[in-house]
Specification:
327 residues; alpha+beta; eleven-stranded mixed beta sheet; four-stranded antiparallel beta sheet
Length: 327
């Protein structure tokens, strides 16, 4: 028999979903058969797969031990570099500054070095995360940004934080502001909004922007204002009101003001005309603006976190001093 005791990081999820994560070697068919035949019990009573688990619940599994064997290999995240720039941290969350060029998650054939792996290594080394002591939870990223975009990414250190922040993200209670440098003079001293519709083009790994609705396209909304100009470029502050793939890059290119250093959406002649080839986009500010039902993370309300000023600021706008403004 194998037994699990539910911890705070395991609570509030369905029994079947918990077991799928806690016992990945247990085939779904065997799992549901065991539930039907009472070979899996919660607090010594028969339970359904839909049973919601609470802290302290005890799950007894009368099944072969082979289904619950723990892997013996070293965790991949321990091979990730130790470099991590932490902007804010408490018992529930960590805000890290992702450098340009680093993936947020494993992918594109790179599984070892990514921001999530660095966060997990950091938490392991500080004693806050031990996979051996977790049944179903691992620290996770709440948001992610493109590989070549730098700036703030949120990591949830607890299941409660992941659940709450995912909901806050959906209801736009996490305000995300970006800095970017675009080609040309974009005159927008006051905040204004652009509403477009975007559709993914998987074959070309990009999105297409349309001014009006069409099948397969999703609405995307960005607020923006210009902060500084040179003869060739404009420094823009943008707030995402939706979170579509490549939203800022594609929308500003559609407006005729492609991002400096963006080899995917900027016209080739513009991209090649500038010696600065790094993508000039930074997830610069994160503002927690919570409302509604009380949660365990309400203490974060009004927290305002800024990333370090991006390198392109001094490179393209050497005479601009950027104040950390509030709206």
């Amino acid at each position: 028999m194998t037994q699990f005791t539910i911890t705070p990081n395991d609570a509030a999820q369905r029994l079947d979903k918990f077991l799928q994560k806690a016992a990945p070697n247990l085939p779904p068919a065997a799992l549901y058969k065991a539930l039907r035949t009472k070979h899996i019990k919660v607090n010594r009573k028969r339970a359904e797969g839909s049973t919601r688990l609470a802290v302290g619940d005890v799950i007894d599994c009368y099944l072969p031990d082979e289904f619950f064997a723990k892997p013996t290999w070293q965790h991949d995240f321990l091979c990730a570099p130790a470099q991590l720039h932490v902007l804010y941290e408490d018992e529930h969350i960590l805000l890290a500054q992702k450098p340009a060029g680093l993936l947020s998650h494993a992918g594109d054939g790179e599984y070892i070095d990514n921001l999530l792996a660095r966060v997990q290594r950091y938490l392991h080394e500080t004693g806050e995360y031990s996979p051996e002591n977790e049944h179903s939870f691992a620290p996770a990223l709440v948001n992610r940004i493109d590989r070549n975009t730098q700036g703030i990414v949120i990591a949830a250190k607890t299941a409660v934080a992941l659940r709450v922040l995912n909901e806050k993200m959906k209801t736009r209670q996490l305000r995300k502001f970006y800095l970017c440098a675009v080609h040309g003079k974009l005159h927008a001293p006051q905040w204004q909004s652009v509403i477009s519709h975007m559709a993914k083009d998987p074959a070309k790994s990009l999105v297409r922007v349309y001014d009006s609705p069409r099948a397969g396209a999703k609405e995307c909304i960005t607020r923006y204002r210009s902060l500084a100009h040179t003869n060739d470029f404009t420094l823009v502050q943008a707030e995402l009101l939706t979170g579509r793939t490549h939203q800022i890059r594609a929308q500003f290119a559609h407006l005729g003001h492609a991002l400096v250093g963006d080899g995917k959406y900027a016209p080739r002649v513009l991209y090649q005309s500038v010696p600065y080839k790094s993508q000039c986009l930074c997830a610069w500010r994160l503002a927690f603006d919570f409302s509604g039902e009380k949660t365990e993370l309400d203490y974060l309300h009004k927290l305002d976190v800024f990333a370090d000023e991006p390198a392109f600021l001094s490179r393209l706008f050497p005479d601009t001093t950027l104040a950390r403004e509030t709206l």
